[in-house]
């Protein structure tokens, strides 16, 4: 079977990481092209990743003729929509900002291109639902959403344990999600839509049930954020199966990246994210290191996610969170935003899955 020829749209923090992953760490795939609204960023990355192949990078004004042979280097395509349409690209990774996802996802569907779309699927529930419906109309699943925690070995082991029933029924999930710091432009709504959305997916996935109601409350914010930014945030999710999950999201924690999840079940509890790595006692100090960001903490999860996406795409399938999962998370976040401003519980308005996908 020939290698999957991949193009990456949006090569900032996450896209550059994924592009490098495809170019250097993923089997059965080859990075053909990258695109970014900031073309110089794409050019620098393409040059760096082409170096590994021992060939110069190219751009569309150069010698691209619609089909890149292996070892041709990584091409820069000015317009991300052109990258999606290109004949020599079999599948796309979207790591552009969430606000660009809807248009680019529709382009992927129009061109029949499988796509691994970073979270959030889109910026609101209505556009996410349109994406789900458009994919459903095609009759095959082309969209996988980048909820990478499902691929993290610790989360996967927790899921397996809970599903085994050894601890009885799971009652409650406690989550902590802390980033060292966030850009001043990272406003309160983004804490829900970009950060909390991971716990929304984790809760839906671990419980295998939809979230029906969300409450978001905020203490007096940390003094280290701009006026008006509500950080940290505490949320409670109520699920259709009667379970409850809570999460503290704090994106300007200052210390490091910390993601924890404790499941409380009828006959025991299980916790992940307590800090792996080497625990040392030296020089009057004891302890271990904390990862600086998600790229370090979840490196293995991203690697597994992308490898399994490539393998599944080559089989003509997806193997991970679907467009529906992206839509359901968007619907919860939308209710979460309403709750963030009212401080009261808000019911999640979710379309009837059977009717949409039936
Ligand atoms: N799964 C995860 O853990 C993470 C996921 N993400 C997601 O990845 C996506 C990108 O986030 P970051 O890399 O942190 O942002 P970023 O700001 O570092 O990178 C975004 C890049 O997209 C480019 N861009 C802007 N408009 C574009 C367009 N219309 N088409 C193509 N490129 C465009 C920008 O110039 C920039 O280089 C977001 O959806 C974000 O939520 C981000 C961090 C972690
Ligand atoms: O997805 C991510 C970022 O977009 C978000 O901004 C961070 O808070 C999350 O920890 C990270 O996983």
UniProtKB/TrEMBL annotation:
Catalytic reaction equation(s): myo-inositol + NAD(+) = scyllo-inosose + NADH + H(+)
Gfo/Idh/MocA-like oxidoreductase N-terminal domain sequence ranges: 4-146
Superkingdom of origin organism: Bacteria
Short name of any one Pfam family annotated for the protein: GFO_IDH_MocA
Gene3D superfamilies, sorted: Dihydrodipicolinate Reductase, domain 2, NAD(P)-binding Rossmann-like Domain
Assigned keywords, A-Z: NAD, Oxidoreductase
EC number: 1.1.1.18
Domain GFO/IDH/MocA-like oxidoreductase positions: 155-270
One GO molecular-function entry: inositol 2-dehydrogenase (NAD+) activity
UniProt xrefs under InterPro entries: Gfo-Idh-MocA_inositol_DH, Gfo/Idh/MocA-like_OxRdtase_N, GFO_IDH_MocA-like_dom, MI/DCI_dehydrogenase, NAD(P)-bd_dom_sf
Family (UniProt): Belongs to the Gfo/Idh/MocA family.
Subunit structure: Homotetramer.
Function statement: Involved in the oxidation of myo-inositol (MI) to 2-keto-myo-inositol (2KMI or 2-inosose).
PANTHER family linked to this entry: INOSITOL 2-DEHYDROGENASE (PTHR43593:SF1), PTHR43593
HAMAP family xref list: IolG
Name of the molecule in the record: Inositol 2-dehydrogenase
């Amino acid at each position: 079977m020939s290698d999957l020829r991949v193009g990456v749209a949006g090569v900032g923090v996450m896209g550059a990481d994924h592009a490098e992953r495809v170019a250097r760490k993923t089997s059965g795939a080859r990075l053909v092209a990258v695109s970014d609204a900031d073309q110089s960023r794409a050019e620098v990355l393409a040059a760096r990743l082409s170096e590994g192949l021992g060939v110069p990078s190219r751009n569309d004004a150069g010698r691209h003729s619609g089909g890149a042979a292996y070892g041709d280097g990584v091409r820069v395509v000015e317009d991300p929509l052109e990258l999606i349409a290109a004949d020599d690209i079999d599948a796309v990774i979207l790591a552009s900002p969430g606000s660009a996802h809807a248009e680019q996802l529709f382009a992927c569907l129009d061109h029949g291109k499988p796509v691994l779309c970073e979270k959030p699927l889109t910026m609101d529930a209505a556009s996410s639902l349109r994406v789900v419906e458009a994919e459903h109309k095609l009759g095959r699943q082309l969209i996988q959403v980048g909820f990478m925690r499902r691929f993290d070995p610790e989360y996967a082991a927790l899921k397996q344990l809970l599903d085994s029933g050894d601890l009885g029924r799971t009652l409650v999930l406690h989550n902590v999600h802390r980033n060292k710091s966030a850009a001043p432009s990272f406003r309160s709504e983004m804490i829900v839509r970009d950060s909390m959305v991971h716990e929304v997916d984790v809760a839906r996935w671990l419980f295998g049930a939809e979230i029906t109601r969300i409450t978001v409350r905020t203490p007096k914010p940390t003094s280290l954020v701009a006026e008006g930014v509500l950080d940290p945030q505490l949320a409670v999710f109520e699920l259709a199966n009667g379970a409850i999950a809570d999460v503290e999201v704090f994106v300007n924690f200052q210390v490091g990246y910390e993601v924890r999840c404790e499941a409380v079940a009828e006959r025991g509890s299980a916790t992940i994210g307590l800090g792996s790595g080497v625990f040392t006692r030296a020089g009057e100090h004891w302890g271990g290191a904390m990862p600086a960001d998600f790229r370090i903490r979840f490196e293995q999860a991203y690697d597994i996610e992308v490898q399994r996406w490539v393998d599944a795409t080559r089989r003509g399938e997806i193997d991970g969170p679907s467009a529906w999962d992206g839509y359901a998370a968007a619907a919860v976040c939308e209710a979460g935003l309403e709750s963030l401003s009212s401080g009261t519980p808000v019911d999640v308005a979710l379309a009837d899955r059977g009717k949409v996908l039936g």
